[in-house]
Amino acid sequence: MNIATKDKFDSIIYASDLVSRDLSWLKFNERVFDQSKKESRSIFEKLKFLAITASNLDEFFMIRVGSLYNYLDYDKERVDYSGLREEPFKVKLMLECQAFHKKQQEHFQKNLLPNMADSGFILSNVKNLTEDEQEYIRSYFNKAIYPMLTPMVYDGYRTFPILMNKLLVFGVVTLAPGEKKENRKLSFVQIPANIPRFFEVEREDVVIYIPIEEVIRENLISLFRNVNIESVNLFRITRNGDFTLEESEDMDANFLEEVKRKLNERKTGRVVRIEIEEGYSKWMINLLKERWNIQDDSIFKVERRSMLDFTGLWQVIGNRRFKDRLPQMPSPVHPLSYPEEGTEDIFQVLKNRDILLHHPYNNIDPILDLIEKAADDHNVMAIKMTIYRLASDSRITKALLRAAENGKHVSVLFEVKARFDEENNIREAKKLQKAGCFVIYGISNLKTHTKLMLIVKKDENKVTRYVHLGSGNYNEDTARLYTDIGLLTTNEILANDVSEFFNVITGHSMPDTYESLITAPRDMRNQLISFIEQESENAKKGLPSGIFIKVNSLEDSEIIYALYRASQAGVPIKLIIRGICCLRPGRPGLSENIEVFSIVGDYLEHSRIYHFHNNGETRTYAGSADMMVRSFDKRLESLFKVDAPLLEKQLMNIIAFNLRDNVNSYKMLEDGTYIRKMPQADEEEFNIHKEFFHLNVDDVMQVKLIG
């Protein structure tokens, strides 16, 4: 693409009042990548963040680029928020992806590879090993790898083999002795997923990592005997993983089969990206381009001295030898509203007050404690839950199984459309179903993303409902890495709302209204817009106003334009959006009163908080929903109102701390780019991922949000 065309694209994009969702996501991945460049981080942390950006980019190509190809391949029209149609947008998107890929490769080669030896490990090839080490590797190859490799030739007699998504593949061009060049053949050798990414050679002072492809490359001739190898080409493909589940009449049978069928389709989805080592056979790449209908801008070249697939670096990061080289996170502290955590019966505590949990600063144990006690308590009659993602060895599943065995009514909505967790969720759901639990596999064409739990317990002469509402999954593993909000309560208003919502989910009920719950897809967008409009009215009357929102993503155009109108009315608006933000802040006449920040650091920001000043009668909500079209129209979501003074102040303090952060914070500019927020000359560093471990009630109760 020439410079004039690029400038034309950029001017169209800048003229739009909205920022492209996909281009905004790429800016988010750049902020993650920025963590890999911070001098204060160890090389193991830098490798970790580089691996995360690679994993993020894999999913981006599978889902977002895959979705774009669904339009391109079937001649469906789409105009991106940038103002570009399908083909021009694809050109722009691939330009940005290629530029990011180049930054990753340069950083790895210039800043990480040269500093590995000082940290006790190196990446090397077989030739740099001692003779004894080379012999050991040959033996390992012959016994453990060679039997697993299957050369698959493609010619006029054999069909083109199915190459798996995200696996390393050798494309080997061969020619039989005496044959003419036009009779050369192309064979594929796929490296199985269950072979470690690196072969490890441990010496006293250093660990040597040999990429598995180098071990195979050294011995590849054993697979191609008595033919001439013309070229050996290492590559990796990414396939379209985006699919939409159609509605199914029979939710217990047909729906699950539909999910399984779509999962299988991921294995054969159209190729959307090829990553390949430089020096490749042009004949081979032309054949692949024609076969997969892919253009040059979707081919990402990697130098031999670098490596394909940075996600493999997790093997280095996870080596026990280097365990103490990664920063150790502080132990969780007791919740401000539950200082006696672990010493008092949680059922008794919740009868007297609500508990707000802020993970990972507070443990997930109170939730696990509650459900495990409920499973064994003979007075507990029922447990109802929604489950989106679970830990690999989930205490939640074990507790629910035990509850069912103890004769309690257990209802679980398992969202089998949770992306990339579908198979695990189906497996766990079937366990519960066999144990006698009432299991629902999702709701028709909606994805159940809300996080709710209801425990019904008989206490003396009355029944008490214990409720948990949260922003995060019931997952012990991610609760140590993601920041999330959870409310434990026996509040009758919320308990009624949650009971009604479960009736909607499990049965056929349409309640008139909820008192403290806002739900999607019914009325969440409209309710939030009404809150925004109320702030606009207050500002026009000269009354105090302000909007403070913390979410993962902001993409819904109706919400964005409501925020634009509020800005024009004079409402001060501060948004903390970790990832995608399609709103354009600071544009004269449009969004001058809107500031957008993004927090990216040691923990993944996952909590959602909505705070409206409302002329001093504050409205503060938390929950599972981002401000996206899918959240409002295609998901079962919930936001819950927090009224208890201490708990509401805690949520306000989370926002206030996010706005103060000058270590992990980035400010969004009008053009959609971001700049790092740095401590000023007279400021000390304020890192929220450390400060939340040192809260006290008095300080939190003093917090104010000022526009």
TrEMBL record:
One of its GO terms (molecular function) is polyphosphate kinase activity. Pfam families: PP_kinase (PF02503), PP_kinase_C (PF13090), PP_kinase_C_1 (PF17941), PP_kinase_N (PF13089). Its cofactor is Mg(2+). One of its GO terms (cellular component) is polyphosphate kinase complex. Keywords: ATP-binding, Kinase, Magnesium, Metal-binding, Nucleotide-binding, Phosphoprotein, Transferase. Belongs to the polyphosphate kinase 1 (PPK1) family. This is Polyphosphate kinase.
